[in-house]
Amino acid sequence: RKEVEQDPGPFNVPEGATVAFNCTYSNSASQSFFWYRQDCRKEPKLLMSVYSSGNEDGRFTAQLNRASQYISLLIRDSKLSDSATYLCVVMDSSYKLIFGSGTRLLVRP
Amino acid sequence: DTGVSQDPRHKITKRGQNVTFRCDPISEHNRLYWYRQTLGQGPEFLTYFQNEAQLEKSRLLSDRFSAERPKGSFSTLEIQRTEQGDSAMYLCASSPGQISEQYFGPGTRLTVT
Fold it and tell me: Which residues, including other chains, have CB under 8 Å from residue B73's CB and lie 6 or more apart?
């Protein structure tokens, strides 16, 4: 079983749609949680950290459920420029990042 | 540009050759990480440094791989006797502290023919 599991997608949605991605992690000792965005053949870029209380950044909302070991990302009012792969990332007890395989999002006009 | 930089951006080499990649982290970031990413997968941890000390190495890092960060600033990753299975994107990241976010460089794409 992978340490961080995500639905690979692709999620194909129209502009303006709301889309949600989920992720589960296996190590209950995980320290911190993040969503990274990766465009094709580019490096991962930090989208947002994920806090237990939930946090929002513009159209993006992240939630963490430590009891269920579950992380989510909600994107509202999708834009064409949101098309990318979204990587769920967990920091383990030795402070290195463990990445999921990514969920691919395609936003169509 | 004050981000993480990596050199070269692309490297094509023949099987059996040695290659070396360089990473320059963001200034004053004391932690530097190397990851490897293959198509359709997320990046996988290889090794990391705190200042000049190499603190952890993944089992992915065979004895053909060696990494250094001699003065606690830039780092190099060397692969000896390259194999086709080494073809991947090699990513470097830096962070200012243990639990801080990590910022990635553009990567070095290695192709072993």
Answer: B24, B25
